[in-house]
Design goal:
517 residues, Arc Repressor Mutant, subunit A, BirA Bifunctional Protein, domain 2, 3-stranded antiparallel sheet, 38% helix
């Protein structure tokens, strides 16, 4: 076994072991000098030997501390708060216990910025207090011996020493070091790594066995192969059982990967993709979807309203009037509407879209059936951030319109969509202001042996379609993509999708098909 290990040693590994044998407490620099090796080669060889259990490596960080240019200034002339306190003490000796800011700044020789920074320190230490814009020295402030303060002594210590090892700073300065934690700009800190190498039992056995130094062939030339010289060369052995390093190739973010998979499925099913703006008028986001203007979803606590631009330009007056009629008395649909006075100003309000369904009705206003359309985009709602809610998330929305479109066709489309995603789906009745019949889709989660609601769908109500002049049936559906991604990747907390946890992202597979249900 030892012979096999020796045969697999690199020349630099052998030199490193030879250096330790000569002096077992050698530093990397000393080994590099005695063995005629680059320092980087020494540390590389140490890493390889440690991984093989031939040596152990103890690392220790050593900090050397000195003063920066600003720190030197404060060590000589005093910290701003101490210079201000000294000025107040001098005023007090002159019989003046209070002074204006300008008077203190001039006497202490500090800047306006240093003055603002120092006031808090003075008051926390109860050296001074403020009253009507003036600084008033306290009894504690009068009795302070500035030269005996820990911070002053610490700065003087570093000024005298120039540079000092962190471990050599007296314990008496621990309090001063703690006080300076937020003022690191006053110090220059250099960190070096100290390595201690120790032979493991395997390393000792290798040195007892001994080895020879010889050049190893790493690349064969045409001439060596032609003349047969290759037969006389020495080749280092390789351990074919050595594990390879982990490889983390670039990959698409799991959320984006889910979006792309959904996009591919809809395109394969013959849908066209539509895009729209995240800033939308209340008219398209709510009113065109037959959502009453006093609906709870329109409240400030549920929707983000924007102040710039504050209002939107509404579409044609004809479409506005038809929408008004649907809300007030149901238009020509036979519905009673919502029986309230519809307000055009409310419809002009600008919001961050709360769903992508507004994009669907916009598409219907510009395109005549038959049609199949889907969209993927960000939507915004005033949600409290927790493990299952975010104020910003992604939604996929779709509509299918045609003379032969029916509720049964909608269920078939949804079933095929979820099948392509790898889910078992079922449907249950639901309510939405703009669809009837309405359902929610639930997918089965084997790990939890339960069903999870994933999206809503239904047939657009006549009150939605009549203003647009649509005579055919229109099926609409939508689902939240983050929730779907959580299912695909086994995530319990939705925030994981946005935290960019590099460890978690590296472990994710590159392929799209993460789970099959």
């Amino acid at each position: 076994m030892i012979d096999k290990i020796i045969n697999e040693l690199h020349l630099y590994e052998k030199k490193f072991l030879d250096g330790i044998e000569k002096k077992d407490d050698s530093s990397p620099e000393e080994i590099a000098e005695t063995e005629d090796m680059p320092v980087k080669a020494v540390t590389s060889a140490a890493g390889m030997l440690e991984s093989k259990g031939i040596i152990t490596v103890a690392k220790k960080s050593i900090d050397t501390i000195g003063l920066s240019e600003e720190g030197e200034d404060y060590a000589v002339n005093g910290l701003p708060e101490h210079r201000i306190l000294r000025a107040l003490q001098e005023f007090s000796k002159e019989g003046k216990d209070e002074a204006t800011m300008d008077e203190v700044i001039q006497k202490a020789g500090v800047s306006q910025a240093q003055m603002k920074f120092s006031i808090g320190t003075l008051m926390r230490n109860k050296w001074a207090r403020m009253n009507n814009g003036k600084l008033i020295i306290t009894d504690e402030g009068k009795n302070v011996n500035i030269d005996e303060l820990d911070q002053v002594k610490f700065l003087k210590f570093l000024h005298d020493k120039k540079e000092v090892l962190s471990e050599n700073i007296p314990k008496s300065f621990d309090n001063a070091k703690k006080q300076f934690q937020r003022r690191k700009e006053l110090f220059n800190i250099k960190t070096e790594q100290e390595f201690k190498f120790k032979l493991a039992d395997t390393g000792k056995k290798i040195l007892e066995k001994g080895f020879t130094f010889q050049n190893e062939a790493t690349q064969l030339t045409h001439q060596q192969l032609k003349t047969g010289e290759w037969k006389n060369l020495h080749y280092r052995g390789y351990d074919i059982n050595t594990s390879t390093p982990n490889n983390y190739p670039g990959k698409i973010h799991p959320l984006q990967q889910t979006i792309e998979e959904i996009r591919d499925i809809f395109i394969d099913m013959g849908f066209d993709e539509a895009k729209g703006n995240i800033l939308e008028s209340a008219f398209w986001n709510f009113d065109m979807l037959f959502q009453p203007q006093d609906h709870a979803a329109r409240e400030m606590q549920d929707t983000f309203y924007v102040s710039n631009p504050k209002t939107a330009t509404l579409p044609s007056q004809e479409l506005v009037d038809k929408t008004r009629a649907e809300h007030e008395h149901g238009g020509n649909t036979g519905s009673d509407g919502w029986k309230y006075k519809w307000n055009e100003d409310v419809a002009r309000q600008m919001v961050l879209r709360t769903h992508t369904t507004g994009l669907s009705v916009r598409y219907l206003s510009e395109n005549q059936p038959p049609l199949k359309m889907f969209s993927v985009g960000r939507v915004f709602r005033r949600e409290t951030i927790n493990y299952k809610h975010l104020p910003e998330f992604h939604q996929v929305e779709g509509i299918v319109a045609g003379d032969d479109m029916s509720f049964k066709n909608l269920l078939g489309i949804l079933k095929e969509f979820y099948r392509k995603l790898g889910f078992k789906v079922r449907f249950r009745p639901a309510y939405f202001p703009y669809t009837y019949l309405s359902i929610e889709s639930e997918i089965y989660v084997p790990e939890k042996k339960s069903w999870m609601e994933l999206g809503g769908s239904g047939m657009f109500r006549p009150e939605v379609l009549e203003p647009l002049g649509i005579k055919t049936q229109v099926a609409a559906f939508g689902l939240g993509i983050e929730r779907l991604a959580m299912m695909r990747y086994g995530i319990e907390d939705i925030r994981m999708l946005y935290q960019s946890d590099i460890g978690w992202l590296r472990k994710l597979p590159v392929t799209k098909n993460i789970k099959s249900f």
